[in-house]
Each structure stands twice: as structure tokens, then as C-alpha cells.
Amino acid sequence: MKSIFIFDVDGTLANPHEPIDSKFMHWMESWVQKNEVYLCTNNTYTNIVPRLGRKLVSGCKAVFTSGGNSVWMNEKEAKTNDWRPSSELVTMLTEIVKQSQFKIRSGPNIEYRTGLISFSILGKNATKEERQRYIEWDKTTKERRKVVQQIKEQFDNLNVFMTGDTSIDICEKGHDKSQVLKYFTNVDHITFIGNETHTLGNDRPLTEAMYNNSKIRYTIHSVKNWQETYDFLRKRA
Predict the structure, then answer these.
(1) Which segments of the chain have a pLDDT < 50?
(2) Fewer CB in a 10 Å sphere around the end CB: N or C, the chain?
(3) pTM of the predicted model as reported, rounded to 2 decimal places
């Protein structure tokens, strides 16, 4: 029986915006040599390599970045999606930033990735302190949840997800993490580990695709942080 592992990255293998814990990294470097492992993240390849370490990343069979819109094998990009957001969407996001009552701005607010965009009212260059302030604001106001719904209502051709602590990721429907399943037609069992399996999370499309695929046996393990991932794997080792 062929069994594989798929991991999310941020919140699963490392804290968002931070490098992986060194002890966990060394353990994973050895572990990926004994298992068939894939990474599936909405982040970019150039972002995750320095955070996870080249040895760990290169030990994976393939790396699906930008929600599977960019596929990396042997440290080379093997597939891309050239989707770009419409001017109407960009205009709407710009207006949302202007109207937000949260006044800290640490741009850029829109980050263009392969096949998707990552949007943040706070901004992608925010400090850890600024992100923490926005996290508390968002918990109280539910701002991101409201923005997700606003975008969905106006653009029914798009998928919109809450990602990390401060961001919203946007892509075409069907071009989210669920698309990676097409690469595993000869697999008997998939173990997926992610932290955003909730209704608006970017791991949700992949978990739903697994639920709806009767040909694959699967285990979905939802975690709150990398420590839970580490504990789960050590118990299985």
C-alpha cells in the first residue's frame, strides 16, 4: 500500500512569518528521508525555503506553493498558473483598505503570487507587534470574516480564504489546494496535516476534496501549531 504525507507550512511546521524550530527541523530532516512527503502551502517557494531549511524542503517529493498553482520538484518550478486579479477586484481591495478603522498600515497590502493574491489590510511588512495588534482587533471586530464575505458576494468566480493571522488569500475557484489531489491517482492513503481546516481556512478545499474522493483512504489531522505536529509525528514514528 502506497501511503504519503502532505503538510501545510505556516502554523503547521512553523509559526507564521518565523523560521522552523531548530530541534524540530533536524528531526524532520531525518523523518522525510524515511517517508514520502509533500508540502502544500499558499506561501511562495522563496519564502518557505529559508524558513524550513533547504535540506528539509529538498527532501520532499514535491512542493506545492501558492495553493498548488506553482509546483516545485528538485528545486525547480515544474508548473505555474498565470492568473491575475481583475482591475475591479484590485479597486475593491484598495477601497477596503481605505475604509478600515484599523489605522496601522505596513504595506504592501496586496502581494501577487503565482495564481493567487494575498491581501492584508495591515500590510505584509508589519512588525510582530503590529501583527499582534491586528490579531486582537480582528478577534473583536471579525473584520477579515466580513471582508471575505464581501468579496465572495461580488465575485462568485473566486475562492476567498482567511490565512495566517492577518491575511486573506484569493484565487480562482478550483485553483486552490484541492487541485493537488490530481497528482496522487496511484496513492492508497494520504495523511494531511494542516491548521486551517475550518470553514474559511485555506486547507479546507483539500480536506473537502479528500472527503469526496471515494478512491483514496485518508487521515486528516488538524493542529493548532507546529508543536502539535511534532507530537503527532513522534507518536507515529
Answers:
(1) none
(2) N
(3) 0.93
